[in-house]
């Protein structure tokens, strides 16, 4: 199969946009990952597309986001041609990210 393009998605969460715009309430880290991630994964699976996700370190650190983010790793395992970066971090989610979260500012 020839690949003509690559896909990537910045999963910047609701709170990060609120913080950027100076909106009150961002400190509670409101999230839409539970709604968005399943839709994205279904869209990709239906089209047999691969993607690289970029995740905000703070979102990776928050327990309330772990289910949505683990589903990304599960999708990578269930689709043999899926590309998820960095795979080594996602395979050991969330412990693989703990060492890296301090690098994210």
Task: Name the poorly predicted regions.
Answer: 80-90, 96-105
Strand coverage percent: 5-15%
Helix content: 40-55%
Helix count equals: 6
Describe the structure.
This protein is 50% helix and 8% strand. The chain is mainly α and 105 residues long. It has one domain (8-101). Strands 1-2 form a two-stranded parallel ribbon.
List keywords for this structure.
105 residues; 8% strand; two-stranded parallel sheet; 6 helices; mainly alpha; 50% helix
Report a brief summary of the structure.
By secondary structure, this protein is mainly alpha-helical. The protein has six helices and two strands; from the N terminus they run βααβαααα.
Topology:
Elements: E1 8-11, H1 14-21, H2 33-46, E2 52-55, H3 57-61, H4 66-78, H5 87-91, H6 95-101
Parallel strand pairs: 1-2
Helix pairs in contact: 2-4
